[in-house]
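Why run this: before we spend reagent on co-expression, it is cheaper to look at a predicted model of the complex and decide which construct boundaries make sense. The entries below are exactly what would go into the expression plan.
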Amino acid sequence: MNAPPLMVVQSYSLPEFKKLLETGATRDGRDMYAQGSIMGIVAREQLSHLTDDEITAVHEFLQKGWTIERAALEEAKIATFPPPTFLKQ
Ligand code: HEM
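The model came back. C-alpha cells follow.
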C-alpha cells in the first residue's frame, strides 16, 4: 500500500500526531484525505474516534518502543498470518 515506515512518527510532535490521526493531514501539511489516500480515509472514519489518551499512548509507543528491530520482528509475522477471509474459497 506504500505506507511509509512508522519510524516517521518520531518526527511528529503530539499535536501533529493528533492532527494526523484525526484528519489525515501530515506534519508538512499534506492532506491525504483530499488526495484520496487510504490513510486519509482511515484517519477520518476510524482513527478520529480514538480518545486523547489513546492517541497519547500510541504516540508514546511509536516514539519510544518502535525501532527498526521491532519493525522487522513485527513484519516477519505477516508471512505467518492466515489469508484474509475474502481470499478463502
Ligand atoms: C493507528 C494507526 C495508524 C497510524 C499511527 C498511522 C500512521 C501513519 C503515518 C505516520 C503515515 C505517514 C505520514 C507522513 O507522510 O508524514 C501514514 C501513512 C500511510 N498510512 Fe497510516 N497509520 C495508521 C493506520 C493506517 C491504516 C489502518 C492504513 C491502511 C488501511 C494505513 C495506510 C497508510 C498509507 C497507505 C499511508 C501513505 C499514504 C500517503 O502517503 O498518501 N495507515 N500512516
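The pocket of protoporphyrin IX containing FE is lined by residues 1-4, 8-9, 20, 26-27, 32, 35, 37-39, 42, 47, 58 (CB under 6 Å). Helices lie at 14-23, 38-45, 52-65, 68-77. Bring this page to Monday's planning discussion.
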